[in-house]
# Entry
Amino acid sequence: MSVRGNRKPYPRFNNVYDVLALFYKMIEEHPKPSIVEFTKLLRAIFRMKRYATVVSLCRQMELSGVSHNDYSFNILINCFCRLDRIDSGFSVLGKMLKLGVKPDVVTFSTLIRGLCNQSKIFEAVSLFDELFEKGYQPDLIVYTTVLDGVCKTGNTDGY
# Structure
């Protein structure tokens, strides 16, 4: 399977070891493939629910000089949230801002969902409110995420 020049999506991998083999092949190439190619592999591993593996691969990418984009950062944040490491997800958000990568609705809805999953409804609603203050226009997904979190707790008084 060619890594270079292959703009078609990778086939759906059924085996994490096949994805890892391709990842390690790509990480050794000079020059390295683009972040878009790495992100395809991260997405495949994420779909296999191997969140800790994605986190580890992201660290290896950074150490080998592969820069993240907004999509790969969002995958990483999602993995941290799924691993109940929401603080690490917010650290990635800080890194995005420091590097000038603009977070999007997916970034914020992922973090809000992570807060709701940890029953941190007040923090989720505060982040939601902060979106408006900073000029973001949350979409239906963000509204649904916040409402779902509030409804699951059954606590509408003070969140």
Summary: Residues 78 and 106 are 9 Å apart (CA to CA). The chain has two domains: 1-102, 104-159. Residues 104-159 form one domain. The chain has a mean pLDDT of 85.
